[in-house]
Amino acid sequence: MGDPSHFSVKGGSNPHTRTRWGTRRHVDRALAIRQWHRLKDTLTDLGVRVLVVPPDPGQPGLVYPANAGFQTEVDTEKPLAEKTFYLSNLLPTRAGEKAHYRRVLESAGFRLGEFDERYRFEGEADFFPAADVYLFTCGRLERQRFAPALAFPPWKRVYGFRSDARLEPQLAEIVAPKSVHRFDLILEAHYHGDTALCAFGPRREHLLAYRDAFAPTDRPRLTALFGDALIELAEENARRYAANSFTLTQGSDSILIMPDGVSSRLRDQVRERGVTPIPVDVSEFLKKGGGSVKCMIGDLGPVASETHENSPVSG
């Protein structure tokens, strides 16, 4: 998790970060810090070791380390030397985070990999395991800008999406023999796949899905892949970023840490699958920064070591 001491809206790079007039939102930092500590305490109370990324006043987006990259074999208990953390190539306003993440992870003993810097990629926010496959989400890459609009005000902010579809073959090579299934995003409010999809359960076999976030031709493939394991999200829950939840299995207990405010019916559907939902209020991070529970957690999985056996690490 990224220390929130300097959390603010720097670039205003998604629709949640700006007002209808295009001005950047102001963060209530004291509230954000309280919410961040509540989420961290929830994880540590569940037995998770949390690696805290130190703050940097020039990089307020460090509070969203799900964008830092992704860890191979994230659900397999192995020594760090047998896994690789692939660093992301973030959008220009957050590109400075990469060197920061590199220093922190190298000092913690992680083996690192990188992608060609020509290709934008935002880590496990767009690439994550689900059941026996991996899901890769991407969309049209845009130069973020203001453009004229037939509306009031007479302009709009163009945001685009975050990960380059051309990386699909390389990602598939990394996780082979598991297959990679690509889904194209179309709603800028759901600019990352982890805002519209969440695989959860002991084997990540269940899936929360907001179909409207994806191209119409892709939506039937979600059903084909997951069948009855899919829980379709209503707009109300999708707007609260219900899919931006963090799945955790500790022994025989399967847990889903969810944004506070999702419907009781959705929490019941999670329970019906043998998973315990735990709501946590991180609303300041969603309303001002466009990220919720999962965005605030980089999943490093269980690490096999002499001193910390079977203990997941979140960074």
Name a few traits of the molecule:
315 residues; alpha/beta; L-arginine/glycine Amidinotransferase, Chain A; three-stranded mixed sheet; 7 helices; 17 strands; 22% strand; globular
Query: What's the domain count?
Result: 1
Task: Tell me the name of the CATH homologous superfamily.
Answer: L-arginine/glycine Amidinotransferase, Chain A
CATH topology: L-arginine/glycine Amidinotransferase, Chain A
CATH architecture field: 5-stranded Propeller
Bulk shape: globular
Mean pLDDT: 95
Q: Trace the largest sheet across and list its strands.
A: 1-17-16
Characterize the structure shown.
- The protein is built from seven helices and 17 strands.
- With 315 residues, it is α/β, with parallel strands linked by helices.
- The protein has one domain: L-arginine/glycine Amidinotransferase, Chain A (5-stranded Propeller).
- The chain has a three-stranded mixed β-sheet, with helices on one face. Strands 2-3-4 form a three-stranded mixed β-sheet, covered by helices on one side.
Summary?
The chain has helices at residues 29-45, 97-107, 168-175, 219-226, 235-239, 264-271, 283-289, and strands at residues 49-50, 69-71, 85-87, 112-113, 127-130, 133-138, 145-148, 155-158, 180-184, 197-200, 206-209, 230-232, 246-250, 253-259, 276-280, 299-303, 311-314. It is of the alpha/beta class and 315 residues long.
